[in-house]
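hi!! sorry for the late reply, been swamped w classes. u asked for the two structures so here they r. pasted raw, havent cleaned anything up. first the sequence of the first protein and right below it the tokens
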Amino acid sequence: MKQHRNFSRSRRSSSPQEKIKKTQKGRQKKNRNSNNSSCNTNSQSHEKQPRQLQEGKILKFIKELEAQQEKQVSNLKFSQSFIEDVQQKQTIEEDQGHPEFDKQLQYIKCYEQEFHQTLINENIYLGNSLQNQKIDDKLRARMIDWMIEVLGNYNETTSDATFFRSVSIMDYYLQKSITEYSNSNLHLIGITSMFIASKLEDIYHIPLKDFVTRISHYKCSSSKIKAMEQSILETLNFEITFPTSLDYLQNILYQFFSQNDNPYLKNIQKTSIYILKMCLHDYEMTSISQNALASSAFIYSINDFVLKNNNNNQELTINQFINQTIQISQINQIEIKEFVNKIQDLIQNFQKNHPTLYNLDKYQ
């Protein structure tokens, strides 16, 4: 019995070595389980990363679609409001019974009549400017060509209005001045006329320092320019805001086309301005009034445009423009045709009569 009991005890209780082995095996199993669990978590995290990237791309794509839809909606609203505004203007213009139509009509008539009457009343004759001067008309043409070059180099701050104002001030001063000037004085008179015109027409006028250094190359000092400026202003009684041929042309263009930005109309405008600049070079053309000169240049441009682009009813179209221009400028038809013929002769013979003048084409 004792042996059996000892035997059973030996089976139930293991030796210390066996216990150590068991504990080592247990630890190995735990390590394996922990490794397996870590591998599982790593694999799960690797699986989650591409899912998160895909979800981020999808969300970004959805946001872009929403932004595009918002832009389309805003553009649609803008276009609808623009169309409604245009339609409203059309209904006002077409419907004479509209309450706003009478207000606009009265305002336009009042403004146009006042502005047009101002142009007629302030018309100044600039012909015979060299009659009492010892200045050659060829030198005057060279001065005007040089004015185009000077102001063309300041095209970011000056405009055509500055050029036409410069020539008009110079001619008006030479016509009214009791002082007899020679060719040597024309340079100073021309520079000072540009200086006054730039201050009058330009937002950022050409500084006096530039006229002394860059333009006259120190041939005209600031004191000489200031003295000539005083002489011009006092001789003209400070009346230097009179309308030029460009002002009359712009009035005609507005009467016909309002503020239309059609490229064909822009071409007609540029052609008319080019012709007026060419006319200013020719001393004989200054005998034509500024109003008549602008009207004739416009008719010539319209005639040229219609003959090149309109194949139907050319004569009828041209006559309609002529009749309307006569009403605006208050010039008879015989004068218009005579002046248009003079412009045509000038264009054909300009290079022959002025072979050394090239800035008109260079800075057009």
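now the second protein. again sequence first, tokens right under
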Amino acid sequence: MRSLVQPGSQAEMVGRLFLAVIVVIALPALPFGTYLIYPFVILTTWFHEMGHGLTAVLFGQDFERLVIYANGSGVAESLVANDASRLTHAAIAAGGPLAPSLAGAVLIVASAHARIWRPALWLTAGAIVLSVAIYVRSTVGVIVLPLVAALLGLIAWRAPAGFVRFTLQFLGVLGAMSMLRDFDYLFTERTVIAGRAMLSDTGQIEAALGLPHWVWAGLILGVSAVMVAASLRYALDERRLRAAPGRLPRNVVRFRRPPR
């Protein structure tokens, strides 16, 4: 039976991304689905907290440690200089909620290029392992994150190319959709993590720059949506897909007709 969808076409890319969305949404509803999705919930927390920590490093501050709790919440602890500007404080606070969408957008873009499917997974796995060695200081993080890295490494090493691409798309969609999971948190000024009351990320931005926290929440959601939309537009661009040469099976020989 002839396939109605041409391999490498826009329709195929849309179908694969849509399947990734369905898996992300439906997996928790399946029997034992909560347990299956749990390592990837921890992964999105890792995206978030690493966003805080790496933004601190980018602004010349010290990223000290990352703690992830069993309920999926987490804290990135950075040593910020007393004379650090308000912009520095605000940027560190914003780096967390923006990081999962940024990571998701990068992975979606990577899924559009066959030559970097496996390197992208290896790089993600390596970044996880390196962060655990340097920054992660909690039992949940030390146990779960290396297991996720090992799974990604195994997929990059042994899985068929199509499954490697789907894994990138799944992780990209997971990161992109985390902004919806964090919707209530973004619009909350104060929160409680591990029994400690503290300002939320948007509450910290409000304290640093003024304007209500919900304004910053809306801005973060808007920037996240733009990043994800841009990555989808790139990955699904029909002109780029049409220009990409299809790879013929190994047993097919291509002949070129000489010019007249």
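hope this helps!! also noticed smth abt the second:
DSSP finds ten helices and four strands in the chain.
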